[in-house]
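Researcher: Sequence recovery benchmark, item below. Answer with residues only.
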């Protein structure tokens, strides 16, 4: 397989603000793997919270490009085996690992002539519907964002401000859609328990990551006493975190870049199910390359947040589309991704 790396600057439709900061342009790394004239694509965006930069990801991937040139995907070497083989070299950089794994699954499906979900024996039935995410802004802007996507059935509202309940009360005046809230580590245990009761009566279905990631003792109390389900995001990054989340959360939000791709995500889903945890997959502000990979897991999930490409002013790829929260799959093999732009070539 031949490895190619390119970078893009993804322009956002609106400034996106969460409890930790704001973003107008999202840099992203696109991995291309080529074998026998077929090309698979994977993605990892940069992320300051997780320390993922274009440079750190490209250095990690360039270090395995020679090894990749020796590999040929086949019935006896699927992307999961490739992930295991390269894990010793890439495990310190799960974002790079993710971009490569997504490209390998897209390529493998294209070589086999089947969508990835079908390779895994899944069926596209009873699929969860994605939320549309509304970042923190002044009240008028948040209402305008909701109204711009008024036909979506679920909204995920970013919170962690001094007036969180007022935000939800105001948004509720404008829609009957389901709400989810994500405090991105911005609340205390007391605030979470107090807010949960009020939010339940405002049509909120769950709370994502209310407390800072390491506050496990407080989280146990919140899990036991909250009237709303609590879903781990920052507290659940990789496979090793899933078992610890049982008893501290009601479910986990897996992100492909946090855990290192589709291969470990499938393992985490199986482990979470065995522990009785609900399972969500979330996205970053990313292009249709990454979103199309998430779509392959959809039959396995309770909840999904895959509006990343919808948040962009301009996309760089075609593949799976998300329309009013509903996933529309192309009739193409792999993840169905094709690039429609060229980025800045790194390798
Ligand atoms: Mg989150």
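Model:
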């Amino acid at each position: 397989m031949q490895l190619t790396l390119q970078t893009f600057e993804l322009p956002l439709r609106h400034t996106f603000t969460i409890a930790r900061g704001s973003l107008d342009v999202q840099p992203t790394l696109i991995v291309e793997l080529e074998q026998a004239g077929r090309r698979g694509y994977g993605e990892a965006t940069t992320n300051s919270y997780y320390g993922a930069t274009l440079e750190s990801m490209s250095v990690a991937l360039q270090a395995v490009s020679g090894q990749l040139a020796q590999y040929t995907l086949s019935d006896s070497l699927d992307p999961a085996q490739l992930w295991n083989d390269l894990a010793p070299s890439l495990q310190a950089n799960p974002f790079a690992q993710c971009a490569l794994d997504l490209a390998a699954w897209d390529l493998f499906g294209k070589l086999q002539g089947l969508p990835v979900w079908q390779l895994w024996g899944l069926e596209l039935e009873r699929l969860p519907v994605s939320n549309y995410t509304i970042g923190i802004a002044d009240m008028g802007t948040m209402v305008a964002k909701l109204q711009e996507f008024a036909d979506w059935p679920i909204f995920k509202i970013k919170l962690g401000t001094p007036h969180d309940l007022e935000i939800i009360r105001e948004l509720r005046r404008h829609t009957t859609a389901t709400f989810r809230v994500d405090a991105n580590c911005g609340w205390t245990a007391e605030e979470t328990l107090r807010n949960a009761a009020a939010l339940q009566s405002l049509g909120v279905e769950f709370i994502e990551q209310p407390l800072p990631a390491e506050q496990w003792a407080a989280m146990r109390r919140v899990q036991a006493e909250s009237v709303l389900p609590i879903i781990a995001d920052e507290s659940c990054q990789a496979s090793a975190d899933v078992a610890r989340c049982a008893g501290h959360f009601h479910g986990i939000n897996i992100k492909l870049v946090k855990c290192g791709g589709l291969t470990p995500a499938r393992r985490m889903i199986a482990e979470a199910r065995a522990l009785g945890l609900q399972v969500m997959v979330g996205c970053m502000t990313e292009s249709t390359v990454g979103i199309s990979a998430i779509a392959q897991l959809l039959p396995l999930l309770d909840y999904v947040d895959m509006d990343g490409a919808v948040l962009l002013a301009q996309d760089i790829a075609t593949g799976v589309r998300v329309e009013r929260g509903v996933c529309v799959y192309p009739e193409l093999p792999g993840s169905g991704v094709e690039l429609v732009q060229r980025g800045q070539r790194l390798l």
